[in-house]
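Lecture notes, structural biology module. Today: joint structure prediction for complexes of five components.
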Amino acid sequence: MQLARVIGDIVATRKEPAYEGIPLLVIQPIAPDGSDLGRPLVALDAVGAGVGETVFFVRGKEASFPFHPKQVPADAGIVGIVDHWTTEAGGGPRARPGGQGRSPHAT
Amino acid sequence: MQLARVIGDIVATRKEPAYEGIPLLVIQPIAPDGSDLGRPLVALDAVGAGVGETVFFVRGKEASFPFHPKQVPADAGIVGIVDHWTTEAGGGPRARPGGQGRSPHAT
Amino acid sequence: MQLARVIGDIVATRKEPAYEGIPLLVIQPIAPDGSDLGRPLVALDAVGAGVGETVFFVRGKEASFPFHPKQVPADAGIVGIVDHWTTEAGGGPRARPGGQGRSPHAT
Amino acid sequence: MQLARVIGDIVATRKEPAYEGIPLLVIQPIAPDGSDLGRPLVALDAVGAGVGETVFFVRGKEASFPFHPKQVPADAGIVGIVDHWTTEAGGGPRARPGGQGRSPHAT
Amino acid sequence: MQLARVIGDIVATRKEPAYEGIPLLVIQPIAPDGSDLGRPLVALDAVGAGVGETVFFVRGKEASFPFHPKQVPADAGIVGIVDHWTTEAGGGPRARPGGQGRSPHAT
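The predicted structure, tokenised, for the full assembly:
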């Protein structure tokens, strides 16, 4: 999987029927230090991510697992929203030492 | 998935029988700003795309899903025609703010 | 799939039994303008291609589909011989405007 | 598979349910001489690796095999901790000539 | 598939149980002219290759086919030892014009 920043979304009316109702986001893969890493791509969103959030995504057929038993012809999908991460060189740009992350259901 | 521009098509008479009747297009992957990104490739077309249109395509075995139950040995397939997209840096070259996209069945 | 030029072949006597009797060709991926694109690789040949011919090949497990039900552990296979192609920038090096391609069974 | 060095970990509370309870580590692929090779990525950990250890990991859907029958949408997973390796150019940075490796259960 | 030169091996005592008893070799992909091509990787060995030999290997899940029905989470496997090859630009470094290759069972 790779870290990425959500940078946009896509509207497509003519598409494979299996895509109906699934958000398509444009994401920019990033390095652990938060810098851009490689080319932007289009990914299915299975976790309700929004523009500006840091996520991790999976490549390959596995991207469609969260939509099972629907057979979505996909090769990239967002599977988690990152609260924070730590590396040898320190935390990422959204690192919050000691933080417990945000709850998706927090009000 | 990745954004791409359709730039050509291919004629092949000697080929795997499973390919019979499926359009083969040459596509150029592009970045969200519309610039070329990486190498052109050959993709199955499942949505009736034409030269010059902006599409998004899937890599891997999933490219053949739209032709199920036919088993097409493919690794890239066009799965949607892009109406418009938006990113942090603004819309893509075909972005139409507020637009509803083109209907595939519009007359 | 990608366009490629067949540039050689391989002889291997010690190999996985599933490979028995399947031609192994060395191919050089090419761009639509006919220039080399990336690294040469070894591919199964399912269509009787020869050195010097322009082909298109598939990556991944799908490369073994033409040999079904034989389970060949392969990741690249030639699935068609290209007669000609056209792109925005004109035809490929073997383009024959108005041509119908060569029949594999022509005499 | 590729050699890598574990360089960090990730905390994500909003994620695909299948990820629950599986450690997510940030790894840096390395060359046989121990130098960094390509971009860091996020991998499932199936062997109890820790930051600073040298591991080898697998790419693709296979990354989720160790968690079978759980269907984890993953594309990278750590499958072994390297004791030492040898190459034409000598051993890797953790090579211990004549060593038997560390037992995971040694006390 | 790709040509490669076997350059080393790996010892790992803590690993996925499915790896037990399968040799893990470090290989350097090479071009048809014998020069290094891309990064070294770790591959399963299904054909008894040794350091210094020229082989061809497969990427992806197919790497584990020779060990069926064992489910090995692998993405690269050596599937043949190359006797010689020929290309437009002449044979590879081990090419033996007119040779019949080495028999694995020769005495």
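Point to remember: Chains D and C do not touch (no CB pair under 8 Å).
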